[in-house]
Structures are given as C-alpha cells and as structure tokens.
Amino acid sequence: MADQYDLGQILHYPIRVEVYSWDSRHPLHWVSYNDEGRIAEGLFLEPPALPLFTLEDDAGRRLCDALPESVSAVAALMPASKSLVRLVRRLALSSLLPWELEDIHTALQNQEYLALMRHHPYLHLNHIRLLNRIRGPLWPGLLNLVDEHTSAVEMSWLCRMIRDTLAMAGRNEQVLAGIHSREALQAQHDRLVERFNRANSRNSEEKRQDLAKELSEEHGDYPKPPLVPIDGLEPLCSWLELLEEGATMRHCVGSYDVPVALGEVFIYRMIHPERLTISLECHNKTWVLGEVRGVCNSSPSEGALDWIRRWVNTDRRS
C-alpha cells in the first residue's frame, strides 16, 4: 500500500511522490511521477530531493505519524528539519541537468552552505550551482554575485574571477570579505592585477628566474602541453615563460602556477595574427577553451577567437 503526496505547490512544477508504508513488502520505497509518467524512485531512507519524513497529505497527516518509534529513531538521522523545509520552499528552481539533482541534495546537507542560504532573501538554483562550483572560500556577500538570470558563461566567469583574485592575493581570503557585487569583485581583481604586474615589471629577469626556480621546487616540472600547437600558436613550456607572459601582457596569468601545476589549466600564447594569451581548462578529462585575452585583459577579435575555437575543437576530435 502506498500513500501519494503532491509536491507541485512546493517545487513549482508538476510532481507527485508515492511512498510505500513502513510495514509493506518494500518499506518506505518511493516513486515520483510527473504528467508524463514515472521519473525516479528510491529505496528506504533515500530522499526524493525533499526529506520523506516532512511529507504530509491534504489532511495534514504526516508520513512519520504512522511510524513505530524504532523506525522514527532511524529516520531522525536524516537531514530533515522545519528550517530546511522552509529554505527549500523559498528555492526557485529552473531546468535541471540530470546530474544536478544529486548535487542539490548534497548541497542541502552542507551546513556552511545552509548558513549562507538561510540569510539570503531570494534563493535560486543558481546559488547552489555557484556554491558547488567554488566550494570555498565562503563569505557573506557571495550569493549576491548571482541571481536567476545568471547564465552558465557568467557563472564560469565568476568562478575564474574568484580563483584569480585569490591567487594574486596569495590565498588571503580577506580580500573577498567585503565583496557584495560583481562590480566590486571586478574592481578588486583589477587592483590586484595592477599591483601584481607592477611588482613583476620591477623585477629584473634575474629575479624572475629566481622566482621560476622557486616555482619549480614547489610544483616540479612544468606540465606538457595537452594540445598540439599550430602555426601562430605556441604553448608556454616553463615556469619562467608563465611569469614572462604575465609581465609582457600585463594581466594575471603569471599567478596561475597552482592551477597549471594541478593540471586544471594550461596556457598558450598567440603570436600572430594577434598577440593573445589563451587558457585551456580541463573539464571531465577534456580540454576546453577557457579565456582569451590581449594586453591588459583586452578582448580578442572575433576572427582570432573563431580560429582558436576551431583549433581546440579540431584537436579534440582527432
């Protein structure tokens, strides 16, 4: 025997959940449906996005009311609470990718994430996406950087800006503590770029060589290029070249030693027809185009950008 619960008013899209009683052949097994049919199911104590034990029918009867005390004691181990239910009710959803449902469930069990979200006036799925992507550091104004209109491209830009700002500040999280808007993040990033490049330009080549030796001792050998270069494009092949690229182009790529060492990022440079710095990023073991920037973070021409995209896509297919 199974009880049915309509979650449409809570989640703002058509969805029903059937939950088998605790004394059935499949105790607390649940199945969810939308207007087109079955969409998911789970076993005992596996929550369908909302904790099962918060469910109640139209008459106000809760699933847990009929449970023996011993079963309720086990159920209490689940991350269900009235405050969590209130938070989920405030969460505006958008279209989900298949793997995001589990990410949302995991995020709703992270107490640091919940502490931020409970104090934010308007919650959207994009706030959870941001938290899951950056993971840390967290600060009071972080959730102000996104809203329901934030695109995937803008989300990637935000994550890179946070990463680069931290790198140039020597991982000092205090540089982000007062950031409450994208404009403030951009301004802080630009101040650090100016300071970083001013210090780097004052260094003699000999000093940069000393710093490159320190990076080699810290990270080991410089990684091998992931894509085969073509005419006009060449990979940076040493820690010294990474520092020199930042000094020459007057942007923050010289601070990318950690993501480069971790194999998350690789840097190429375009010599002609334009002078550009190109970052590739590794996602799911595949190298994709990250950023393309000219001197002082200027934007590339559409022609150069299209050429670079075709190079990355062609190499990936080969």
Automatic annotation (TrEMBL):
InterPro entries xrefs: PcfJ (IPR025586)
Pfam families with a match to the protein in the record: PcfJ
Compositional bias of kind Basic and acidic residues: 197-222
Renumbered residue ranges of the record's region Disordered: 197-223
Protein name: PcfJ-like protein
Source species of the chain: Marinobacter halophilus
Classification lineage: Bacteria, Pseudomonadati, Pseudomonadota, Gammaproteobacteria, Pseudomonadales
